Amino acid sequence: NAGVTQTPKFQVLKTGQSMTLQCAQDMNHEYMSWYRQDPGMGLRLIHYSVGAGITDQGEVPNGYNVSRSTTEDFPLRLLSAAPSQTSVYFCASSSLILTDTQYFGPGTRLTVL
Amino acid sequence: AQKVTQAQTEISVVEKEDVTLDCVYETRDTTYYLFWYKQPPSGELVFLIRRNSFDEQNEISGRYSWNFQKSTSSFNFTITASQVVDSAVYFCALSEDTGGFKTIFGAGTRLFVKA
What we know:
The complex is a heterodimer. In chain A, 0% of the residues lie in helices and 50% in strands. In chain A, strands 2, 4, 5, 6, 9, 10 and 11 form a 7-stranded mixed sheet that branches. Chain A has a 4-stranded antiparallel sheet with strand order 1-3-8-7, with no helix packed on it. Chain A is built from no helices and 11 strands. By secondary structure, chain A is an all-beta fold. By secondary structure, chain B is mainly β. Chain B has no helices and 12 strands. Chain B has strands spanning 3-5, 10-14, 19-21, 24-26, 33-39, 46-52, 59-61, 64-69, 74-79, 88-95, 104-105, 109-114. In chain B, strands 2, 5, 6, 10, 11 and 12 form a 6-stranded mixed sheet that branches. Chain B has a 4-stranded antiparallel sheet with strand order 3-9-8-7, with no helix packed on it. Chain B has a two-stranded antiparallel ribbon with strand order 1-4. Chain B is globular. The relative contact order of chain B is 0.34. The mean pLDDT of chain B is 93. Chain A binds chain B through residues 31, 33, 35, 40-45, 48, 58, 88, 90, 92, 94-102, 104, 106-107, and chain B through 4, 9, 35, 43-45, 47, 50, 91, 97-108.
């Protein structure tokens, strides 16, 4: 199992550009989430999904879109990047019954100039 | 609303010292789950422990131990005989879900262990 994979690992954008952060898991987990990590603030939940076709907002959803067309994939879209979105983004997956924890991807470090 | 507070921003110790990382949480749920994660300088998140709200038994795993006290809403983490490899950021987290879905994280405590 590859676990949770994220691409790219690093990305630099200019203000106003759009892009998609990719996340995939091969553990057949129902739940997937996106978090952002800013210095001194821990991780904050952006969006989450309880299954294919179902998504909902977390704590800090503004400026981001998600979709879940398959169980495996949960991409995060930045519609018009802003410097405030400079952060490290983590994708995570979990199963309601079968896991003790969320499994986190390695993260994507995004810089918006 | 749920909240996790890690009041210690940074802690610096000398190798072989014991160190305790504090975690205080707030929730109205009667069923909840508490977690500790380690984030080493390489940046990945490493799961350390999960504790559910009905299990107040303290746990020990090698040099790591956890003290869960519902009466004070605390879930503290102690490293005994610290080592340089323990240097990392440690996060305490709270979830209403057994798998840690939709987790609320504390701000983290950065631990420096000097040789």
